[in-house]
Design brief:
heterodimer, A: 311 residues, mainly alpha, ABC transporter involved in vitamin B12 uptake, BtuC, 0% strand, globular, B: alpha/beta, Rossmann fold, 3-stranded antiparallel beta sheet, 11 strands
Chain lengths: 311, 257
């Protein structure tokens, strides 16, 4: 299939799922043009935020996989998930009335900075990866310990949202920062897509092909951390999107970042919007955490792709 | 005539300690120079400095009398072929296009350059194949095509014949012959036969450039015994070709007189 056809089909699928998300919900079916408050104030911002977060996590995955030259890297690999969980739980325990998003984002950023510091010295992707795994495990176990020791069940219930992810019912104003950041990230990455291609060949090869390796590496890392931290602040930990969307995109359109970036962004948006629509309709009136669904779909799909690649 | 590559008073090293000092080297357009020395003598370190990949500890390196430009202009000045490269999943055409160091999609003229490089490397029928599925020889031709697609004035090669079977060595030598007098080539090598095909040979020993000159004057049994610690039997080609150098036995290195 031609790359442009793939992209158009993905965009159409995103549109179709978005319309489905506007129509369906626990309170019943509404047509989008009925413009009830439920559609305009509850479902529309929720569907859009799901799409923005999905696209942001997918782009962070593309960036992280280029940075580490490893297709199995994901946005949470640098300790971001552990840091975000610790930040969210600390916020819920210390300031129960305050939304835990900002502290979750700060925790994600802090963990990434710690991992960078631990892996300082000559650039070594393996050392960076292992530092991320170690910091993630340490923070996750600390978070778990705090939850177990907590006398209040409320803390555990509140923390569930962050640990398994959920889009919730955002205000329109909550979309401004993630949307602005996504537009910036797409623009930045697309204008540097050929440099990202050369970067994936290796540091020396990229430098010999005219890439300022150090500057590009720093900026990729910064963009990936900010995209992930803002997504985590908005929706908690939605796993597998940053891993599966870039991988599927590469299967569909090949290696060049000029094609992978928009394809992965649409793929990530499609995955999270679909998962969120299922999460709030299929089990209504209960709502299933979105992160559980993305992992349930993403895990087996990823294994299938790996098996197919091995054959 | 301005040298395409020149280093003055160079001190180079992978750490703050210099591995080589007082290196002066100028490469003329189309000239072929071999850097020869034992393991750890600094061949690759010097080559990396000449490629602009590592900064020098002392001295200056100039490319066509200027500092090394960045982006597309860099690959039109200088290209580097590394010893090994992890196979990528780009197609052959995509990988060769990366050699143009573009910051956007290729124009019609860029595509023309890529097509010409693919034809010269006899890769036309493999253009849409994934690089990871190529044979060793095809992968080597692809890397050469990428190194030369922008039409560089200088090509740097690190141990180009290492780990190559005879057929791939022959392919590489045929390519180098094709480039003679059009692209300056600097190569780091242990292969004395390859060094003998160059216009000049630089023998690196004891932290400096011990001898620099034509192969007939540098690749002599005396110089090779002193710098590489080997007895070499040299058989000159009566028809004027490069001499055949046969390593006979190791020997103790003698210090310079």
């Amino acid at each position: 299939m031609r790359r442009s056809t793939t992209l158009v089909l993905l965009a159409l699928a995103c549109g179709a799922v978005a319309i489905m998300g506007l129509c369906a919900g626990p309170s019943g079916w509404y047509l989008p043009w009925q413009a009830s408050d439920i559609v305009t104030e509850l479902r529309a911002p929720r569907v859009l935020l799901a799409g923005i977060v999905g696209a942001s996590l997918a782009l962070a995955g593309v960036a992280m996989q280029s940075l580490l030259r490893n297709d199995l890297a994901d946005p949470y690999v640098l300790g971001l998930s552990g840091g975000a969980s610790a930040g969210a739980v600390a916020s819920l325990a210390l300031w129960p009335g305050v939304p835990p998003g900002p502290l979750a984002a700060a925790g994600a950023g802090g963990a990434a900075a710690l991992v960078q510091w631990l892996a300082r010295g000559p650039y070594d992707p393996t050392r960076l990866l292992l530092s991320g795994v170690a910091v993630s495990s340490l923070l996750a176990s600390t978070t778990g310990l705090v939850l177990v020791m907590s006398p209040e069940g409320r803390l555990l219930r509140g923390a569930m949202f962050w640990l398994f992810g959920g889009v919730g019912t955002p205000l329109w104003s909550a979309l401004i920062l993630p949307a602005g950041l996504l537009v910036f990230a797409v623009g930045w990455m697309l204008t540097r897509s050929e440099r990202l291609d050369r970067f994936t060949l290796g540091s020396d090869e990229a430098a010999a092909l005219g890439v300022d390796v150090l500057a590009l590496r720093r900026t990729i890392l910064l963009i990936s951390v900010i995209l992930t931290a803002v997504s985590v602040a908005a929706c908690g930990l939605v796993g597998f999107v940053g891993l599966i969307a870039p991988h599927v995109a590469r299967q569909l359109v090949g290696q060049p970042h000029r094609h992978v970036i928009p394809t992965a962004a649409f793929g990530g948006a499609l995955l999270v919007m679909s998962a969120d629509t299922v999460a709030r309709t299929v089990f209504a009136p209960r709502e299933v955490p979105v992160g559980l669904l993305t992992a349930t779909v993403g895990g087996p799909m990823f294994l299938w792709l790996l098996q197919r690649g091995a054959r | 005539m301005i040298p395409v590559l020149e280093g003055h008073g160079l001190a180079v090293g992978r750490t703050s300690e210099a591995l080589l000092r007082n290196i002066d080297l100028a490469v003329a357009p189309g000239e072929r120079v071999a850097l020869v020395g034992e393991n750890g003598s600094g061949k690759t370190t010097l080559l990396r400095a000449l490629a602009g990949l590592d900064s020098v500890l002392e001295g200056t390196v100039l490319w066509e009398g200027k500092r090394l430009p960045s982006g597309p202009e860099r690959v039109r000045t200088l290209s580097v072929l590394f010893q090994t490269e992890t196979p990528s999943r780009f197609t052959v055409r995509e990988l060769v296009t990366l050699g143009l160091a573009l910051d956007g999609p290729p124009s019609m003229s860029d595509e023309g350059l890529v097509n010409r490089a693919l034809e010269q490397a006899e890769l036309g029928s493999l253009a849409e194949r994934c690089c990871a599925s190529l044979s060793g020889g095809e992968a080597q031709r692809t890397m050469l095509a990428r190194a030369l697609v922008a039409g560089p004035r200088v090509l740097l090669l690190d141990e180009p014949t290492n780990h190559l079977d005879p057929a791939r060595q022959a392919t590489l030598l045929a390519w180098l012959e094709r480039l003679r007098r059009t692209v300056a080539v600097v190569l780091a090598t242990h292969d004395l036969a390859l060094a003998a095909t160059c216009d000049r040979v630089a023998l690196l020993h004891a932290g400096s450039l011990a001898v620099l000159g034509p192969p007939s004057q540098v690749l002599t049994p005396e110089h090779l015994a002193r710098t590489l610690g080997v007895h070499v039997r040299r058989i000159d080609d009566p028809e004027g070709g490069p001499p055949l150098l046969r390593v006979v036995a190791p020997c103790a290195r003698r210090s310079a007189a």
